[in-house]
Design a protein that fits this description.
single chain; alpha/beta; Rossmann fold; six-stranded parallel β-sheet; binds NADP nicotinamide-adenine-dinucleotide phosphate; NAD(P)-bd_dom_sf
């Protein structure tokens, strides 16, 4: 999207947490490219004095939180590092929100939509997605459990904009964090339709949301769902005609992971109403990821 010049960019100064992270890094590049002043936070989220010092130094118009633990090599790490997960994702996120509130600063918080799973009222394939006001029904992993708790507590902070990111994808197919890179390298993959976030399209939208001072919870995914196999077929069509993959069932997947994973559709109509130009997940995948990477 083209970022609006409404309010200009001169009055903006962003303080961004997550300098060394994937989303935080992309956000900084985006600000640089659009001439938006920003600095990265130096403090640890859970250290109130350090966060206060960052805000006093930077005097931000908005704070962006792209920091948190996601686990390496994957979220299973959180199952065996529960205190570290709580420290960053619960104590840290709440501390940042609380300090921002004291200073009347809007916090744009990159959260997760992996706090839902398909259920009887939102069955797979039905097109009925979870809405912003729905209560999380997936706490199968410790990571998701802490994220759901924090989302609930943050509802009490009127200075917070919670963005439910899911299975983020960027045009950088070499990045091992990219959902496409992940599934194209797995030995076997499940095949389930899911809501996903195309970062190249949606990160600029999050900056626009800051400019519009939007608050509350937002399903931060492109409209519609796409399955693993549909993405891998696009990968084969656009990137590597010799690419092959193998599927396995959820039951077989359960044997090679520690914690269950969330699969769901989020209802993106609230975000779509605010940004009507937002593309459906499949259109966005082609425009922002596969076309630019297409091999001749
Ligand atoms: N990637 C995904 O699949 C995904 C999906 C949905 C939502 N999200 C959410 O989006 C956010 C960013 O994700 P990401 O993929 O960009 O993560 P990432 O690449 O793992 O980066 C995490 C960043 O957080 C920083 N960090 C961790 N603990 C911190 C703490 N206590 N204080 C300050 N900084 C801390 C890390 O810095 P250090 O290296 O200095 O620790 C790093 O810069 C996370 O909250 C994540 O839960 C991610």
């Amino acid at each position: 999207m083209v970022l609006s010049s409404q309010n200009g960019t001169a009055s903006l100064k962003f303080l961004i947490y997550g300098k060394t992270g994937w989303i935080g890094g992309l956000l900084g590049s985006l600000c640089s490219n659009h001439g938006i002043a920003f600095e990265y936070g130096q403090g640890r989220l859970e250290n109130r004095a350090q966060i206060e010092a960052d805000i006093t130094r930077v005097r931000p118009s908005h704070v962006f939180n792209a920091a948190g633990v996601t686990g390496r090599p994957n979220v299973d790490w959180c199952e065996t590092h529960k205190v570290e997960t709580i420290r960053a994702n619960v104590v840290g996120t709440l501390t940042l929100a609380d300090v921002c509130r004291e200073r009347s600063i809007l916090l744009i918080n990159y959260a997760t939509g992996c706090i839902f799973e398909y259920d009887e009222k939102h069955p797979l394939g039905s097109g009925i997605g979870f809405k912003e006001e729905d209560t999380p029904n997936f706490i199968g992993s410790f990571y998701s459990k802490t994220k759901a708790m924090v989302e609930d507590l943050l509802k009490n902070y009127d200075n917070v904009c919670t963005l439910r990111v899911r299975m983020p994808i960027s045009s950088d197919l070499n990045n091992p964090r990219n959902f496409i890179s992940k599934i194209s390298r797995y030995e076997k993959v499940v095949d389930i339709p899911n809501s996903m976030t195309i970062l190249d399209e949606l990160l600029p939208i999050s900056i626009e949301m800051a400019k519009r001072n939007l608050r509350g919870i937002w399903n931060f995914t492109n409209p519609g769902v796409v399955s693993h196999n549909e993405i891998l077929q696009m990968y084969k069509d656009y990137i590597d005609p010799n690419f092959t993959w193998r599927n396995f069932t959820l039951e077989e997947q359960a044997k090679v992971i520690v914690a269950p994973r969330s699969n769901n559709e989020l209802d993106a109509s609230k975000l779509s109403a605010e940004f009507p130009e937002m593309l459906s997940i499949k259109e966005s995948l082609i425009k922002y990821v596969f076309e630019p990477n297409k091999k001749a």
